[in-house]
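In this supplementary section we document a worked example of the pipeline. Step one takes a protein sequence of length 183 as its only input; no multiple sequence alignment statistics are reported here. Step two produces a three-dimensional model, which step three serialises into structure tokens for compact storage. The input and output of this example are shown verbatim.
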Amino acid sequence: MSHFPVLVLPGYANSGPLHWQSRWERADARFSRVAMPDWEHAFRNGWCLALDRAVEAAPGPVLIAAHSLGTLTAAWWATRYARPAALAKVRGALLVALPDPAGPAFPDDAHGFGPVPHERLPFPTAVVASRDDPYGSPAFARACSNAWGSAFHDIGPRGHINADSGLGDWPAARGWLDALARA
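The serialised model returned by step three reads:
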């Protein structure tokens, strides 16, 4: 198990108490949620600046565990917002259930997240996708993974990889996060 603090980056509308991110926070004090300015009205600048403040405030290296819109926030932050000193703190990011900003289910109240950056991310990453995610297709997730230089994990038909997916504490993803810390 990695000893690095983990910044939890939920998606649009936040993660409820049964979501794997919330379960990880309750089970391990190293996990802390990044507070967004508004969970229901997501603007890229505000979300990226919130992540930037959280990374800057960390006393040392961190990992990121992102879900849904949090994954796009991490990609935008890493490619357009972060200063080199902040980027150097990030040991890796687990990017779960990427939503497609051009897709029909993308939230109307999420602004500025598309088109998604398509350059290599400056730290180790792993993209996790479901075959039946209503917010982003496996092809979209794989294209982002390829562009970002990420490892790719297809976990089969698990919806939006949230509390409804029946993953519980999701130990496999904890293992992928720990592997990023060792990369």
